Amino acid sequence: MRVLTASICFSLASLIHAQTPKQEQLASFLSDTRGQTETTDTGVLDNTTASLRGGPRGYVLLEDTVNRKKLLHFDRQRAPERVVHALGHAAYGTFTSYGDWSNITSACWLKANATSDVFTRFSVVVAGTGGADTGRDTHGFATKLYTECGNQDLVGNHVSSFFINDGALFPDLVNAVKAEPDKGFPTGGSAHTTAYDFFTQNPEGAEQLMSVLSDLGIPRDTRHIAGNGVHTYRFINAAGKSTLFKWYWRPMLGFRSMVYDEATKIAGKNNNYQRADLWNSIDAGMFPEWEFMIQTFVDDGEYRYKGIDLLDATQVVPFEVNPPIALGKLVLNKNPTNYFAETESVSFAPSNVVDGVSFVPDPLLQWRLMSYDDSTMHRHNGPNGYLLPVNRPIVPINNNYRDGYQQPLLYEGASDSSPDNIGGVQPASPEEDLDFYSETVTGKVGRYGVFNEPFAQARALWFTMDKYAQQHTVDAYRFELGHVSDPNVTANYIAQILNPINNCLARRVAYGVGSPLPAIGSGSSVVPNTTYPSLFPLGGNASQPVTGLMVGIISTNDSVSMATYNSLTAVLNTNQVLFEVVTSHQGPLTTGVVSNQSYITTASIFYDAIIIVSGDSTQAELSTVPMVEQDFVREAFSHGKPIGEVGNGFLNSLGLDKVGTFADTDPNSVINSIVGALESPGRYPQRQPLDDVQSICS
Ligand code: HDD
After folding, report:
1. Which of 70, 159, 282, 494 could form a disulfide with 211 if both were Cys (CB 3.0 to 4.6 A apart)?
2. Ligand 1 within 6 A of 85 CB?
């Protein structure tokens, strides 16, 4: 685990999670084995550090029952990983309603001042549990609210639409995107033949795929991503009135992404980067927050809004078309106690709703209402997964779902059927029970596809991005299609999906991967009248919080003085920016400054900005700066990061004194420029070359 050196790195966790209802309940399940003498699981004291053997060099005896049990347990100590979203990290926190929303829903978690405990798990779809969490992917954002009226799950992704709109295709999508069946690779990414053949057959996913291939697909971390419910859901109020809605989590820290080269290098050097980021931030008392927002739609039975099909999960409703309202706030403030028991064992399901929340006939959502409960039963080897500590509601569970593997409860009484007259569980009254919306449903049985024009929304996203973001997206298509082994699959994707979105986009991608260029004018040349910044919330000039970002302080020949160090770190501490001193070796330097990392233990990819202290070096030292130190700076530069120099001449000597670099002999001036640059623009993509669009597209 990386060392956090800002002075704010103290643990607030114990103060914050004192005694909320869920934490109180979890406390009753804690098992403190620290410092205790070992026992078997039948409670007998034992020592299992050596086998029982027939002599010092003899066979292990069958009679070594305690070690037999130890190994039998070990052989079974994994649950099957999730078939998607296997790699995840999670935290507890609270959700607070901003007001009383009973006009649209009777959901208790949206009553005035209602506060609910939550558990949120972030994940990536494709990578397995041992994979890298920075790979390009859709990130899951699943939240369980432990409310006073039962558990409410909000299971979404970080981008706002989906690849398909019928759950019947979900196994095909996942099979196609995961490793190819004969080879068993590639794992953890979609850059291969089966994925792109599927994406060509299913053009409805064009917008989501473009989102994932844009910089949105490589977020810096999960503190800087959105959550999107994707589907339309239904609120029902006490009068039985239905209001359709889509839900969103919007990060209060704003949105930040990486560049692809950085994401892949981080994956190689620290495949737990994002989970460590959340863990360390919470441990340091920097609690990430999201606003819960909804768009509402009148329920007239048509499930359409301004021409957008609300039953099609591949269609988005941009915020510019229907501005969302904020209903409440999520704060994550406590790390889990035990990874397996909580993060790995938690069961989310879109079907877990409370009274006042319901569903619509979206065929993707309808299958999700079944699939998650089924996954839970499979992963927990039976039907009792919802009784695990992390999954239990804070309200009583009273039902006749009895027995099964690992049933932990001792149900009292002689009845296990309802209704009865012998003292068993009694059904809730129609006023009390879970609302369903009493709509009239008619229709002729058939296998109906969901079809809406698939390219316009992807085109809107394409034209919303600036030329740098477009270049990154073109490069991502090139990377992905460049790894497709069948040239027909590549050519088909370009001709059938990219060309109808935009002819120039298709030609640029084709040019990059050596595929036939679609003829000029053969694809779309439509330029939409409107763009939607909400579809691509990265970039722009708005100032963003810098809390929890990480700055690397390096110093030519390890010469950073205590005075310079103090000036730099005072400003970083004030702004809640973390930092590490990186030198040729860890530990104390001759100047008295303590170095946290060496060029062996870290790399520039782990920092949002770097500062090089050259002014404390002599001229002779400056002329002998080691290559590893120079490369550190060059790499940060090529990733578009703000770079400061306390001193003058080092950046110049590397030829890097260009946009986004700040050299000055005054450390205060440098550090203030760096913090300002991290606030906005964050990165300088203009350092990278752009395609010669003119020559490729005309
Ligand atoms: Fe799913 C897990 C999100 C479509 C079936 N899904 C899973 C998780 C997230 C999502 C965040 C991880 C939950 C966790 O952290 O434990 N899935 C989505 C979104 C979708 C979506 C936003 C479309 C809008 N999913 C989807 C479909 C199906 C599934 C159409 C099946 C018909 N998803 C599953 C699953 C998983 C799952 C197989 C794997 C493990 C689990 O549920 O508990 O049931």
Report:
1. 159
2. yes
Q: Tell me phi and psi for residue 247, to 5 degrees.
A: -115, 155
Q: Take residue 432 and report the two structure tokens written for it.
A: 């009390």
455 DSSP assignment:
S
Does the beta carbon of 367 lie inside 6 Å of ligand 1? yes
- Architecture of 87-202+221-387 per CATH? Beta Barrel (2.40)
Q: Which residues, 6 or more positions from 640, have their beta carbon under 8 angstroms from its beta carbon?
A: 259, 660, 683, 684, 685, 687, 688
Confidence of residue 40 (pLDDT cuts 50, 70, 90): very high
Nearest to 150 by CA among 393, 392, 387: 393
Atom of ligand 1 nearest to the CA of 164: 30
For residue 9, the tally of other CB atoms under 10 A from its CB is 16
Q: What are the residues facing 123 on neighbouring strands?
A: 88, 140
Helix or strand or coil: residue 681? coil
Angle between helices 363-379 and 170-177 (to 10 degrees): 70
Q: Which CATH superfamily is domain 456-535 in?
A: Catalase, four-helical domain (1.20.1370.20)
Span 550-679 CATH architecture: 3-Layer(aba) Sandwich (3.40)
Predicted confidence band of residue 625 (pLDDT cuts 50, 70, 90): confident
Find, among 110, 149, 22, 138, the residue nearest to 292 by Cα. 110
Pairing mode, if any, of strands 643-646 and 609-613? parallel
Q: Closest Cα partner for 461 from 217, 189, 253, 678?
A: 217
Query: Ligand 1 centroid to 413 CA: how many Å?
Result: 38
Q: Does residue 212 have its Cβ closer than 6 Å to ligand 1? A: no
* Closest protein CA for atom 31 of ligand 1: 368
> What is the pairing mode between strands 550-555 and 609-613?
parallel
As a whole number of angstroms, the distance between CA 45 and CA 28 comes to 24
Domain boundaries defined on the chain: 87-202+221-387, 456-535, 550-679
Cβ pair 209, 173 in contact under 8 A: no
Tally: H helices and E strands in the chain: 20, 20
Which residues, in sequence order, are CB contacts of 177 under 8 Å at separation 6+? Answer: 125, 126, 190, 194, 195, 198
Mean pLDDT of the region 380-403: 96
59 is in an annotated binding site: no
- Conformation bin of residue 427: beta by default, left when phi > 0, alpha when psi is -120 to 50: beta
pLDDT tens figures, 515-539: 999 999 999 999 999 999 999 999 8
Length of the chain: 698
Torsion of CA 455, 191, 470, 277, to 10 degrees: 120
Question: Cα dihedral sign for 509, 510, 511, 513?
Answer: positive
Longest dimension (CA), the chain: 94
Q: What is the ipTM of this complex?
A: 0.97
Contact assessment for residue 416 and residue 424, using Cβ atoms and an 8 Å cutoff: yes
Q: What is the pLDDT of residues 94-120, one digit of tens each?
A: 999 999 999 999 999 999 999 999 999
Ligand 1 center to 10 CA (angstroms): 36
For 109, 238, 294, 323, 366, the CA distances from 328, given in Å and listed in that order, are 9, 20, 10, 16, 27
Tokens of 485: 């082994």
The Cα–Cα gap between 533 and 364 comes to: 27
The residues carrying an active-site annotation are 85, 157
Q: Is 258 in the pocket of ligand 1 (CB under 6 A)?
A: no
